[in-house]
Amino acid sequence: MSDQDYSNTEQQIPKKPRSFTSGSGFKIALLIVLILLMLIPISMIRSLVYERSRRANEAESSIMEAWGSQFVLYGPVIRIPVVEQEEFRTVNRALWITPKDMNINANFSAERKRRGIFSVALFSGDVSLAGTFTFERVAGEIKQNQTIYPDQAEIIIGLANQKGIRRIIRADYNGSDLFFMPGNRNFSFNNSIDNGINALIPFDMNGINTFDIQIAVQGGKSIQMLPIGETTQARIISDWSSPSFQGGFLPTAYTLSESGFNANWEISYLSRSIPLFWFTNDRGDYDGRLNLRGELFGVDFYKPLDHYALNERAVKYAILFLVIPFITLFFLEIFSRKTIHPAQYLLSALANVIFYLLLLSISEHLSFSIAYLISAIALVCMMTLYARSLVETWARSAYMGLVMALLYLILYLTLNAEDWALLIGSVLAFFICAVVMYLTRKLDWSSLNLKQK
């Protein structure tokens, strides 16, 4: 055979086809499958965050129940027995009168009490209630067949939880001392006000009745009061530095500082739906239904950085901590000409999922910021060292450390800037897409072979 024939025969030998598994398309599809599989442990972490948060809420409720729960004060009001003579029977009723003017002054000291690793904001202090009652607005509404017994009148203060009262510091009515007993005497407006205190008083139907009551109270999480006076002025002072004003009325003026807050309310009866007086039957039934809770005002002892809420928000971004490290490893594989096995991608994904487990467990014992710093440093170091073992150069593995550090920094800023979270996330997604497009602008995907050379 001549040299020419040999050459022609050599040219006719077909080239060995490139393996499908060595192509970039197969690798990318496999990575997508791995990311989808990692959503399973992510959902498990999310469930764990929810379960720990539920346990914390149960511990908080247990502590508050023993201390006095949320402090809610309704009143004071005056209850006067009324006998109504109908044609064939006698009906016992009650006349309820609200204060003409009422001044509330409350001063509280807040503290955190712990049960195990869980804590809750509790407070103790005193509430002063001062004002006047008159009969002038009611006099024209009394019917001829109704008989009023002012010598059997009672002054009543409704409470959400009887444990909230520690003691009566001062109780003065028209210059005389009051002796309070437990019970709210059906003061409820058909609402569920199961607790309260009451005291007998001699009500003066022709003059001004004054009251001045100071109560030592305690509770947890929030303080709420009912603006039941024809004119209600209230002032709440506390050393808690992060209040959240709640209810149907916000303060007309307030000051905030690191040492606490000072808030003032001024509320007219024209801005609420509670009548100045009303009649009930002997069971306390009122012809109508009012949502007293919708009329409350007050303050929550807000916990500004609840680490369970921050952990829950952090897990929502977990998919980025799978996609971006995968993209980074994929480019390191391309540019370093080193083959990275899918199992190694899987290990890197598991490491990033473990970050959230570390963050949750450490933040239950330390502040969230310190827990985040410890977890982030641990994961950045681990991913950098792992990338070094894969691409065998510190220069390229440093890219992995830089990417992870920037990613954790952006996540931390996002978690602490809730109002800007959507904007930060959108810009980050755009930036990632732009970087990937730039790095792959000249890459020949069809001829890309990921087998090690």
UniProtKB/TrEMBL annotation:
The chain crosses the membrane at residues 25-45, 314-332, 344-362, 368-386, 398-415, 421-440. Keywords: Membrane, Transmembrane, Transmembrane helix. GO terms for cellular component: plasma membrane. The keyword NAD does not apply. InterPro entries: Uncharacterised_IM_CreD. The keyword rRNA-binding does not apply. It holds the Pfam family CreD. PANTHER family: INNER MEMBRANE PROTEIN CRED (PTHR30092). This is Inner membrane protein CreD-like protein. It comes from uncultured bacterium contig00008. The lineage of its organism: Bacteria, environmental samples.
